[in-house]
Amino acid sequence: MSGVTVAAALRAAAARLGPDEGAAEAAVLLAHALGVDRAWLIAHAGDPLPGHAAARFDALVARRAAGEPVAYLVGRRGFHALDLAVSPAVLIPRPETELLVELALARMPPDRVLDVVDLGTGSGAIALAIAAARPRARVLATDASATALEVARANAARMGLSNVAFAHGSWWVPLAGRRFDLVVSNPPYIADDDPHLGAGDLRFEPRAALAAGPDGLDDLRIIAAGAPAHLAPGGWLLVEHGFDQGAAVRALLANAGLRSVTTHRDLEGRERVTRAVGA
Hints:
Blueprint: H1 6-17, H2 22-34, H3 38-43, H4 51-65, H5 70-74, E1 76-79, E2 82-85, H6 98-106, E3 115-119, H7 125-133, E4 138-143, H8 146-159, E5 164-168, E6 180-185, H9 218-230, E7 231-240, H10 246-255, E8 259-265, E9 271-277
Parallel strand pairs: 3-4, 3-6, 4-5, 6-7
Antiparallel strand pairs: 1-2, 7-9, 8-9
């Protein structure tokens, strides 16, 4: 691509990446290759693309054309006004998970000191979004993956968030004897044999953060069963799940003895987050 303009390089890359998201993805990759923002690309569309940047851009486009997620290629993903570092050790934060954050914040008066835990934090997206929006909250982020916790810790440090702590362990294991005003989680909820696991971005994401048994509910069962012992009186549990799992998750939470079980839909009208309150 050397010797061409910024605009021409973008057009060629967009054609390689496809008609749907190709242009947007090409712009993200070129901005990363050049170390500039998207506004720079527009202002310098007619400039020649430097040879070193052209080679790096071409390599990034080739990897994206082979299926690698853009977030992993550039090492970043935006989520709820945060700029998060991500790596193949963590799930890529999705826009639909912002519903879980908004529902959690709606149950957190800004002037109250509340204890919150994010089970399976990954990059720290949910925990850090809550901590940033509610500085008085005491947020604990857990994960069974020590490598994922390193990513989350680094994100928290870069953002200067001092109201977040971290614990290594699977689900309730590192929380013995502790109760929380709010428990949030976006656990794995895809069935082990779901064909989507072998397609698109999911091929490159950690399987342990995606799949959870024959029906995708194994981890949600663990979370539901342990919630009563870890919710403070009147405390809330909010979990994300698959669009077709609402009824099953409501049954799990009700059978665990939780009250006021309700499912919320995402912007596309799909059942996405179910909440319940402890005894």
